[in-house]
Design goal:
single chain, mainly alpha, two-stranded antiparallel sheet, 2 strands, 2% strand
């Protein structure tokens, strides 16, 4: 997080997203990311997705573990409801591409941390649009909701997201262990800890 903070914060501010919120939302994914295993597991799935689409292969990709179907849903939602500046940014990247070429482009974007982070930020902006009432919540409650939506499905209803918020299904192993955690709780723990460090740093 410290090594990548400068570009992640800059990207978040440019997209109109609170950098601390965005980093906390993806923190659990960084905890469990294993680059070697990720690369080995998805080689065949990538070929299936490019040639046949997400109905044949849908899998988590990259540092922030976004599935191609999720990326495609982001693009559709941006095109329908915006924000317009993000829709235009992705449209420029995919302009003139055929379906197979577009899937190749999406995979390439998801495999690059900086371009994949644009999808993360787009999801948070979409959540802002879908749930404007959450802007009045205190930051930690809003983070827990957004982290759950990112993990379980950003197009789910408010009721569905709230139901998932306390579900303890998050773990970092290959095999599910006896004890798991809530994704939102892990995100909130990092948010609170890092925020405390920032406040201590600002006093010196």
């Amino acid at each position: 997080m410290e090594e990548n903070a400068s570009w992640m914060d800059a990207a978040a501010r440019e997209a109109g997203v609170d950098p601390h919120l965005a980093a906390a939302v993806v923190f659990p994914e960084l905890v469990r990311y294993d680059a070697l295993r990720n690369r080995m597991e998805i080689t065949l799935l990538k070929a299936l997705y490019v040639h046949y689409g997400d109905e044949y292969a849908d899998f988590s990709v990259g540092r922030f573990q976004i599935k191609p179907s999720c990326a495609e849903a982001v693009l559709r939602e941006l095109h329908k409801h915006g924000p317009r500046e993000l829709d235009l940014r992705f449209h420029r990247l995919h302009r003139g591409l055929k379906e197979k070429e577009k899937r190749e482009a999406i995979l390439s974007e998801l495999e690059d941390s900086r371009s994949q982070y644009q999808y993360v930020l787009a999801i948070l902006r979409i959540l802002d649009h879908r749930f404007p009432q959450l802007s009045s919540l205190e930051p930690l409650s809003r983070l827990r909701f957004y982290a759950t939506a990112f993990n379980s499905g950003f197009m789910h209803s408010e009721v569905q997201i709230l139901r998932q918020m306390e579900v303890a299904a998050f773990h970092t192993g290959v095999i599910r262990p006896r004890e798991c955690y809530s994704y939102a709780a892990v995100a909130a723990a990092w948010y609170s800890t890092s925020n405390a460090r920032l406040q201590i740093g600002n006093t010196h």
